[in-house]
Design a protein that fits this description.
Layout lengths: L1 H13 L15 H7 L1 H7 L5 E2 L5 E2 L8 H13 L2 E2 L1 H8 L3 H13 L17 H10 L2 H4 L19 H12 L7 E2 L2 H7 L4 H13 L14
Antiparallel strand pairs: 1-2, 3-4
C-alpha cells in the first residue's frame, strides 16, 4: 500500500497540492483563536444565555474547559457524530486548525483561574451517589468533576445543570437526524438511567464549584 501511495503523494506535492495535515499535526494558537471566536461569543459569552433547541436550556460554559475535549467536540459536530443543526453549521465552516485555535483560546480563559478542592465541596445524597457509582462517572471526570483523568474528557463541575441534562439525554437518542450524540462509552453509560435519574445527576454535578465560567466579550472588537 505504501508503495502505491508514494507516487501519488509525490505527484500532489510537485503539483503544489500538499496532503492535508491530520488533526494531531495541528499546533494550536490561542491568540489566533481569539480572533476567530466572533461566531462563538453571541451565545457562549453572554451570561445566562439560553438556547431553544432541542429544548430551552443554558448554553454550555466554555471558558476553562479542556482544549482537547472542545476540539474533539467540534470535530464531532462537523462529522455528524454529534447532531445539532446550529453547531453542525458552525463546525462545518471550521478547519482542523480553526478548531484547535478556538479550543486553545477558550481553555486559556479566564485569566484568573478558580481554585477547586480535590474533593467535592459537598457530598451527594445516597441516591445520587449510587447513580454516580453505577455510571462510573468519577473514573473519567475526576473525584471533584473538575479534574478529568484525561484531557479529552470534559470538566463538568459547575456546568449548567439543564445543559448537562440535555447533553446526557442526547447520548440516549438514536436515529434522529437533528438530535443525538454517537459515543459508545457515554451511550452505554446513559442507557442505564431514566430521565429523572439523569436530571438528578446533572443537578448535583452542576451544583459543585468548578473552573468553568462565562467570560463576557464585546461583539465590537
Amino acid at each position: 500500500m505504501r508503495k502505491l501511495l508514494a507516487p501519488l503523494l509525490a505527484a500532489l506535492t510537485v503539483a503544489g497540492v500538499a496532503p492535508a495535515a491530520s488533526a494531531e499535526d495541528v499546533k494550536a494558537n490561542a491568540q489566533a483563536g481569539e480572533k476567530k471566536a466572533a461566531m462563538c461569543i453571541g451565545c457562549h459569552s453572554i451570561p445566562g444565555y439560553q438556547a431553544s433547541f432541542p429544548e430551552v436550556h443554558k448554553v454550555p460554559m466554555l471558558a476553562g474547559q479542556n482544549a482537547k475535549y472542545m476540539q474533539a467536540a467540534l470535530a464531532a459536530y462537523k462529522s455528524g457524530d454529534r447532531r445539532h443543526p446550529t453547531m453542525k453549521a458552525i463546525a462545518a465552516s471550521l478547519s482542523d486548525q480553526d478548531m484547535a485555535d478556538l479550543a486553545a483560546y477558550y481553555e486559556s480563559l479566564p485569566k484568573e483561574k478558580a481554585a477547586v478542592d480535590a474533593k467535592p465541596a459537598h457530598e451527594p445524597s445516597a441516591e445520587v451517589a449510587a447513580l454516580l457509582t453505577k455510571g462510573g462517572c468519577v473514573s473519567c471526570h475526576g473525584a471533584n468533576f473538575s479534574k478529568p483523568t484525561d484531557p479529552s474528557f470534559p470538566k463538568l463541575a459547575g456546568q449548567h445543570p439543564d445543559y448537562l441534562f440535555v447533553a446526557l439525554k442526547a447520548y440516549q437518542t438514536q436515529h434522529n437526524p437533528q438530535v443525538g450524540r454517537a459515543n459508545p462509552v457515554m451511550g452505554g453509560m446513559t442507557a442505564q438511567f431514566n430521565h429523572a435519574q439523569l436530571k438528578e445527576m446533572a443537578k448535583y454535578i452542576g451544583s459543585l464549584p468548578g473552573e468553568l465560567q462565562v467570560v463576557p466579550q464585546s461583539r465590537f472588537r
